[in-house]
Write a structure and sequence with these properties.
InterPro entries: 6P-beta-galactosidase, GH, GH_1_N_CS, Glyco_hydro_1, Glyco_hydro_1_AS. This protein has 15 helices and 15 strands. The chain is α/β, with parallel strands linked by helices. It binds 6-O-phosphono-beta-D-galactopyranose. 6-O-phosphono-beta-D-galactopyranose (BGP) binds next to loops.
């Protein structure tokens, strides 16, 4: 078994070694047990490319998936609660069938030695609230706070909470890239306002969690994507700073400083001016952010890839690679930057750069610039690729994935030896699942899912995960 291990040979004592999922991507069962619609249901139906059911049918098969996770050496799992299983229309009376489901699920995790790390929102806003403006409508923040409060009270068996997953991905995909509903393209006002409002929602929930004295830990999850100028020159460095402000820095400032610094706002304002856009901050907002900034117990950091950019002043255009045909993506953002290919960096079929040093760089950056983030977990990292069944009882060889994860875990351990307080790693993803804008052929799992039969198959990366998990000392 240990011959599987290449760079990383052991994990530090007490390390959290987990697999990640998200409700809408694994559960399926979107129409049963009183569940309400999310913003995806009608949209996906209308679009007709792929359906959210049965996904990996985790709603029914979770005992099997959790058993596999345990067998293959995991000690933690990332899950999210589907808001619309609890409150079908986002607010009102709780749906007891949904509540009971999550109690069963958490119980099963705990019984199998998997600590649940639970997000309240993972891209799946209730349709009823989406129709009123989603995060752009501040009344929906009140509804999120009420839903969070309900969950904290009800699910006291959960001790590790995240408010919102990847605030930027949601805002960017909804309002810039246009590949998440409501599919706006380069609506810069929408994107920056959604970021601010999501932060506000997060901060209000953290403040409530602490003021009510709920037990456990709370934080949020940002995906960080280092932006490197390419080639490195003054104009491209400025473009990188602009895109970094929009993708990373605005949210990091708001989360851990409780303020958007003057330098950050100068960059953001340059982008807003170039795009005739505006950000509205209401009286009292910054006090809420400030209060929350020192109360996060930990920080969930998702990392997939960096972006290489050059300066760009032309009109905005975007071609999204949602099919895995290498070299089909293009992105140019007026007054910000254009994405360029760095020929020294390999890419996936979805044009994602494979660059483990980027993880090291963001870990160092966060620790240096945002000391309030203090304890970090890598809450997602992984490789999406097309894969085919190896046949019943055969091992699916995903050596590229092993190499990818191995290199990234090595990068995080290097940062750790240099003082970065990173305490865990969750691979995206536990099993193959539904990918929002790519459907079912972009697979990330340690376990292969045959979406027609729902059979699970073991991938070699699961064996690698197990071998490394076995180096963990049992919890004292
Ligand atoms: C993150 C999301 C996940 C997951 C992952 C892979 O942004 O939190 O939900 O989907 O990215 O992305 P994709 O499925 O687009 O390849």
């Amino acid at each position: 078994m240990t011959t599987l291990l290449k760079r990383v040979k052991t994990l530090p004592a007490g390390f959290v070694w987990g697999g990640a999922t998200a409700a809408y991507q694994v559960e399926g069962a979107t129409q049963i047990a009183g569940k309400g619609k999310t913003m995806w249901d009608d949209y996906l139906k209308k679009q007709g490319r792929f359906a959210p059911d049965p996904a990996s049918d985790f709603y029914h098969l979770y005992p099997e998936d959790i058993e596999l996770a345990k067998l293959y050496g995991l000690n933690a799992i990332r899950l999210s609660i589907a808001w619309t299983r609890i409150f079908p229309r986002g607010a009102g009376k709780p749906n007891q069938a949904g509540v009971a489901y999550y109690h069963r699920l958490f119980k099963c995790c705990l019984a199998n030695g998997l600590t649940p790390y639970v997000s309240l929102h993972h891209f799946d806003s209730p349709q009823a609230l989406f129709e009123t403006g989603d995060w752009l409508n501040r009344n929906n923040i009140d509804k999120f706070v009420a839903y969070a409060d309900f969950c904290f009270k009800e699910f006291s068996e959960v001790k590790n909470w995240f408010t919102i997953n990847e605030l930027i991905s949601l805002a960017f995909s909804q309002y810039i890239q246009g590949n998440f509903p409501p599919n706006h393209r380069f609506d810069v006002t929408g994107a920056i306002q959604a970021q601010h409002n999501e932060l506000l929602a997060h901060a209000r929930v953290v403040n409530l969690f602490k003021s009510k004295g709920y037990s456990g830990r709370i934080g949020l999850i940002h995906v960080l994507q280092p932006i490197y100028p390419y080639p490195d020159n003054a104009a491209n460095r400025h473009a990188a700073a602009l895109e970094d402000a929009f993708m990373n820095r605005f949210l990091l400032d708001g989360t851990f400083k409780g303020a958007y610094t003057a330098e950050t706002m100068a960059l953001i304002n340059e982008i807003l001016t170039a795009n005739h856009a505006k950000l509205t901050i209401e009286p009292g907002d910054m006090e809420i952010l400030k209060q929350a900034a020192t109360q996060n117990d930990y920080f969930g950091l998702n990392y997939y890839q960096p972006t290489f950019v050059a300066a760009y002043q032309g009109e905005s255009t975007n071609v999204f690679n949602g099919t895995g045909e290498k070299g089909t993506s293009a992105f140019k953002f007026k007054g910000v930057a254009m994405h360029v290919k760095n020929p020294t960096v390999p890419t996936t079929d979805w044009d994602w750069n494979i660059y483990p040093k980027g993880l090291y760089d963001v870990l160092k950056r966060v620790t240096t610039e945002y000391p309030n983030s203090h304890t970090i977990y890598i809450t997602e990292n992984g490789l999406g690729q097309k894969e085919q069944t190896a046949g019943v009882g055969q091992l699916l060889s995903d050596d590229k994935r092993i190499d990818f994860i191995d290199q990234h875990v090595a990068a995080l351990l290097k940062a750790r030896t240099e003082g970065v307080n990173v305490q865990g790693y969750f691979v995206w993803s536990l099993q193959d699942q539904f990918s929002w804008a790519n459907g079912y052929n972009k697979r990330y799992g340690l376990f292969y899912v045959d979406f027609a039969t729902q059979a699970r198959e073991i991938k070699k990366s699961a064996l690698w995960f197990k071998a490394l998990g076995a180096t963990l000392k049992p919890n004292a």
